[in-house]
Hints:
4-stranded antiparallel sheet; 5-stranded antiparallel sheet; alpha+beta; single chain
Amino acid sequence: xxSGFTLLELMVxxxxxxxxxxxxxxxxxxxxxxxxKAVATTGARENLSVVMxxxxxxxxxxxxxxxLIGTNDGSRANYGVTLPAAGATRxxxxxxxxxxxxxxxTSGSTYVFxxxxxxLPNGIVLEFFTIDTSLTPAKHRIRxxxxxxxxxxxxxxxxxxxxxxxxxxxxxxxxxxNTWNGSSWSSELPQPMTDQVVTGxxxxxxxxxxxxxxxxxxxxxxxLGGTGYNTVRLIGLVTVRQ
Length: 242
């Protein structure tokens, strides 16, 4: 007769192995979720920081006078900050046609941006003008817009199942810098500055000073459980010399 393990002892060992394995797996899943959230948060903050850094730098170069390098853009003055208007706030709710109530999206639906806002194309949130005098004087019309990725008018954005909050679609911020040639503006098209992570882009010109612009940028990141979300927010305050 040789000694060995009883069936009961084997069952106890197997049960302990199962418990230890499950604990290790749950710990691994939690650490993976923490790392994924940290990566997503860092990526969202980097996207917003790129916009905030460039936008604040350019706003400090806004033209202060109605110069002679093209004084009119149709019926619109083309110097200083023209959007938003003095004493007004402009954001995503002002550049959407669908839905009329920002955030009220049904399953499978996406945002539709205005194609003509105040005689301007696309979802323009901020517009201002600068003058480059480094070589030949040139006037620049700079526009920051909100939109969703598309190709030839066909939506190419994230599926709704990947959004952090099901009723709010993440957008991207685009940038366009046109130059005045003496009779018209150049035809450069808006180019994306961010990934599809932006859920808020608001510019406020308080009534107490039209020279002050408050910039608010927001992005949403999925929570650890995959259902909730956290908001990444950057706020900037710029005084322009108009």
